[in-house]
Design goal:
- With about 475 residues, the chain is of the alpha/beta class.
- The chain folds into two domains: about 80 residues, no CATH class; about 375 residues, Aldolase class I (TIM Barrel, Alpha-Beta Barrel), CATH 3.20.20.70.
- It is built from 19 helices and eleven strands.
- The strands form two sheets. It has a nine-stranded mixed β-sheet with strand order 7-6-5-4-3-2-1-8-9. A two-stranded antiparallel ribbon has the order 10-11.
- The longest helix is centred in the first third of the chain and has 30 residues.
């Protein structure tokens, strides 16, 4: 493991700041947003991205509501695990480790411990992953320990269905100092006795239930009657004081429905506190490129998400339209990575290729030595326009080149479909989308982000020089 030590001044600052932060969270519902934002800036520092600062302040404004809704166990975990361990302490440790290594390390780890799922949704990005075997408890446990040693206390669990993994609740319980977010169909939460009660007792898990829209759209993709299971699961979570949200897969067919005020209001009424939007990607089970939202729809979504985020009491995020919030693509270990059920470490849940495995290497070894990650990171940002953050559909040559250069292996037989069979369609899409958002970037973002882009380029150059010298 890498050895590091926080400077004395930083350790003293943390020692003084953490009790203040804990006290602040307990009285948060009675404090003004302006005061809390000011205090948070002193503890965390100001966000380096202008759009990211607005998102952070929205999140802070939501905290009072989240803490009021949460039961005591969940409230303690949000404060201690997410904001102290992952945020204040974790940020300081990650910064020290990054300085020691010479490059940024993730702030979160995404894990798919199983590809088993009770549903068979068409177009599922994970549907073609092999299902013969889950990630072992021992290696999953060790992965979490390795991550925590580097200051990473936030883990996103997807799949497959996380709650059919035999050891899921055991890991939640053992790592009571970490915070977990799950992407779930909601089936087991609604139908398996005791799951919601266990989450309420643990407190350190936030489920995000997958939706497609209202009942017709959801049942069309996920099976008849599934919408009612979703509502049952949400009702049970709300009554138990377990914070939760929704995740929506945006297609050409449901783009407008998912962005309607009526739908957002409906899920707020069900108790959702966060909402994530995922662009449909033409991978996985029977991919249909015509389901990909059009470039025009994606631009409308970008505008609409900003509008809804500003005025609705829910924290909304869109991983394909919110590039300016986080400085572009997070993949390849820059801010996150994905571990699949075979232990293969992929740069992103949608970028399904690998060259190292956690059964054979430690997390630190992978971050330092993955040829695929290095090939990706030296290309970041793929475009100076952070509204085009995705190397798969926005700048597709970057993904193809990174796989070829690194000699990485695709995770399953048809995982290369975007780079091969759909290459022409993807390239046409990327050019059409660029023609629409490049003027928006120039007008709204370019000047504010120019220093960051240049700094990122310089950091990547140093990283490449260090790699060549090693």
């Amino acid at each position: 493991m890498i050895e590091y030590e926080l400077p004395t001044e930083k350790r003293l600052k943390l020692a003084a700041g953490i009790p203040i932060a804990k006290g602040m969270f307990h009285v948060l519902p009675r404090l003004s947003d302006k005061f809390v934002i000011s205090l948070t800036r002193k503890l965390y520092g100001k966000n380096q991205f202008p759009a990211g600062q607005e998102f952070l302040e929205k999140a802070i404004s939501m905290l009072g509501l989240i803490l009021r809704r949460a039961n005591p166990n969940a409230r303690r975990a949000i404060i201690n695990n997410m904001f102290i361990n992952e945020g204040i302490k974790g940020q300081a440790i990650r910064k020290a480790v990054s300085q020691k290594l010479g490059f940024d390390i993730p702030v979160l780890i995404v894990v798919s411990p199983t590809q088993r799922c009770p549903l068979r949704c068409y177009g599922c990005y994970a549907a073609e992953e092999p299902k013969d075997g889950d990630l072992s408890y021992e290696r999953f446990d060790r992965l979490i320990e390795e991550a925590k040693e580097m200051g990473i206390h936030f883990f996103v669990i997807t799949g497959g269905e996380p709650y059919v993994y035999d050891h899921m609740f055991d890991l939640f319980e053992k790592h009571s100092d970490a915070y977990f977010q799950t992407y779930t169909s909601g089936v087991t939460l609604a139908e398996r006795e005791g799951d919601v009660e266990r989450l309420a007792k643990l407190g350190n898990v936030l489920p995000c239930i997958s939706i497609e829209g209202f009942e017709e759209a959801t049942d069309k993709r996920r099976g008849k009657g599934h919408f009612q299971r979703i509502l049952k699961a949400m009702r049970m979570l709300k009554e138990a004081g377990v914070p939760f949200g929704f995740s929506g897969t945006v297609t050409r067919e449901n783009n407008d429905e998912l962005l309607s005020e009526k739908l957002i209001d409906f899920y707020i009424e069900q108790g959702c506190l966060v909402g994530y939007l995922f662009q449909y990607m033409p991978i996985g089970r029977a991919p249909v490129f015509d389901l990909v939202p059009t470039p025009e729809q994606r631009v409308r979504r970008y505008e609409r998400v900003i509008e809804l985020r500003r005025k609705k009491p829910i924290l909304l995020a869109d991983f394909w339209c919110d590039g300016p919030l986080v400085g572009g693509c997070l993949a390849g270990g820059r801010r996150y990575l994905h571990v699949n059920s075979k232990g293969h470490v992929e740069p992103c849940v949608f970028a399904q290729a690998w060259d190292m495995n956690i059964y054979e290497h430690s997390l630190l070894d992978i971050l330092k030595n993955s040829r695929l990650f290095k090939a990706i990171r030296k290309r970041q940002p793929y475009s100076e326009n952070l509204l085009r953050p995705c190397m798969i559909i926005d700048v597709p040559e970057c993904w193809r080149e990174a796989v070829e250069e690194s000699g990485a292996t695709y995770s399953y037989e048809t995982a290369d479909i975007v780079a091969k069979d759909l290459r022409e369609k993807v390239e046409r899409f990327s050019k059409e989308y660029a023609s629409l958002v490049d003027p928006i970037w120039e007008e709204k973002y370019r000047d504010a982000y120019q220093d960051y882009i240049e700094r990122l380029k310089a950091d990547r150059k140093k990283f490449e020089e260090k790699r060549l010298d090693s």
